[in-house]
Amino acid sequence: MKNKRLFLGISTLAVISLMVTGCGKKAELKDGAEVAVSVKGAKFTATEYYENIKENNITKLIDMIDHALLDEAYKTDEKENDAVKAQIDQIKSYYGSDEDTYKSILMQYFGVEDEEAFEEMLRLEYKRNKAVTDYVSDNLTDKEIEKYYEKNIYPETKASHILISVDVKDDATEDEKKTAEEEAEKKAKDIIKKIKNGEKFADLAKKYSTDESNNEKGGDLGYFDPNDMVEEFRDALVELEVDEYTTKPVKSQFGYHIILKTGEKKKKALKEVKDEIKEKLADQKISEDNSVYYESLLKLREEKKIKWNDSALEKSYKEYMDNLIEQSKVKE
């Protein structure tokens, strides 16, 4: 997804007990108020330490809460392992075998000291992403799902095409690129004239198409989901009737296409593709509005009825989440 948010925090916090009700109360530390550190006659209690860090280290507390909520619901599997490994490998690939640089990057950009902590952070974020996607998916309306089905789900379609690539060098000038574009378009238009004059589409594909993966098959692409094609190709294709071809060249990043629709299966029923639609709609909502991610996490935690027995901690948490949501709404 463009942009499922990465990593809500890395810091340290004393172990606390959350599941006690009450307003304005303070959490009891497992170590009570016993002295935690002494130096030159000065004594620092665990309570003093807790009071000092609780407002500034709320992110670690959030990590602890989410581990409790998500680790059981989203058990580690092969997909998670592969995703985490891929992200670690990607970071490493940027910095080669320089271990010091790698560790420095982990600390500077992710706030962790070593790969073990980095992996733990990635695993938690993977689970958060899954939880958010599931939450958004589960809260879609029937109307949203039906609208997507009508506008974006197509029957499997069979087609052939003739592709005329734009023949231009990487270092070409703007004028040279323009000339190459015009020549490719003109060639495509000339081929359409040949089709109108009765020449066979398959023969013309074999002779002129630059798509070497299928030109020898007369441009036959077989059956496919139109959504698997680039947008321009898909939009032109779905407007055609079977045995109809495009009367104008269709421009895409690959060049100019002439498309012939040769077959179409029955569209799948909504119930057959409902789960697929929900996943796509959820990803779309999350990528189009970054605040959806954080709002979903906030609601997920609220539904679990987390109880706070320290009002200052609860206030810090709410302020932190409100800030994340507001910041995510700022246009980049």
Textual characterization of the structure:
With 332 residues, the protein is α+β, with helices and mostly antiparallel strands. It has helices at residues 46-53, 58-70, 78-95, 99-110, 115-138, 142-152, 174-196, 201-208, 231-238, 270-288, 291-303, 311-328, and strands at residues 35-39, 42-45, 157-164, 220-224, 250-252, 255-264. It has a four-stranded antiparallel beta sheet with strand order 4-3-6-5, sandwiched between helices. Strands 1-2 form a two-stranded antiparallel ribbon. Strand 1 (35-39) and strand 2 form a beta hairpin. The longest helix is centred in the middle third of the chain and has 24 residues, at 115-138. The radius of gyration is 29 Å and the shape is elongated.
Keywords:
four-stranded antiparallel sheet, 332 residues, disordered N terminus, two-stranded antiparallel sheet, 12 helices, single chain, alpha+beta, elongated
> What's the average pLDDT?
87
Taking the sheet with the most strands, its summary is: 4 strands, antiparallel
- How far the N terminus sits from the C terminus, by CA atoms, comes to 17 Å
Tell me, what's the shape?
elongated
What is the helix content? 40-55%
Instruction: Give unreliable regions as ranges.
Output: 1-23
Strand order of the largest sheet: 4-3-6-5
Helices and strands, in N-to-C order? EEHHHHHHEHHEHEEHHH
Structural class assignment = alpha+beta
Instruction: Work out the number of β strands.
Output: 6
How big is the Rg?
A: 29 Å
Q: How many alpha or pi helices?
A: 12
Strand content: 5-15%
Quaternary organisation: single chain
